[in-house]
Amino acid sequence: MLNKSVRAGFQLGLCLALTPSGAMAAAWTMEAGKGQVVLTATLSAANAAFNSSGSLQSIPRYGKFELQGLIEYGLTDRLTLIASPGFQHVDIASPAAQRTGLGFSEFGGRYLLLQGNAWVFSGQTTLRVPGTFEKANPAAVGYTDPQLDIRALFGYGFSVGGWPSFIDLQRAERIRVGG
User: Fold this and answer.
1) DSSP at 3
2) Which of 8, 45, 108, 117 has the smallest number of CB atoms closer than 10 Å to its CB?
């Protein structure tokens, strides 16, 4: 069962998700002095997994709730600053482990390199900072080491039946520190 703070975070995320607003795709930079905030909540649970033969087998219960924010601010028309704080609750049945606190948080920027009438090409770099360094806790496995994310982004805008649409293509490399 999720604790009260996780439930409250989920309810807040749901209310914000139901509030309509426009958003920019990742390849585009924000206009100077403008910004956006996007909040994403994810709830995952499992008690079965596929083994190496592709057969489904029972596993100890695993549950995870994540709340991830994305804050972007146009420092200039070409440079967008990025902050993406994360919160998570992980609960594992066996070995019995639980963790509630900060998840990965990212900090960095996106820079517009080239632009045409309907397309953009930009580069982005973010540093992913772990919310914990507690490697002995099984509920923290995979969340304890810093990472560097470097990516190239291409965006193309067009209309479909009068509706604004876009294609956003990205190529990224993530460099992980540690195991």
Assistant:
1) -
2) 117
Tens of pLDDT, residues 64-115: 999 999 999 999 999 999 999 999 999 999 888 899 999 999 999 999 999 9
The structure tokens listed for 141 are 């496995």
Per residue in 136-154, pLDDT tens? Answer: 888 778 788 999 999 999 9
- 43/41 Cα distance (integer angstroms): 7
Q: How far apart are CA 96 and CA 2, in angstroms?
A: 15
For residue 128, pLDDT beyond 80: yes
Question: What pTM value is reported for the model?
Answer: 0.78
CA angle in degrees (0–180, nearest 5) for 15-65-2: 85
CA-to-CA distance for 145 and 147, rounded, in angstroms? 7
39's CB contacts (< 8 A; 6+ apart) are 13, 16, 17, 67, 68, 69, 70
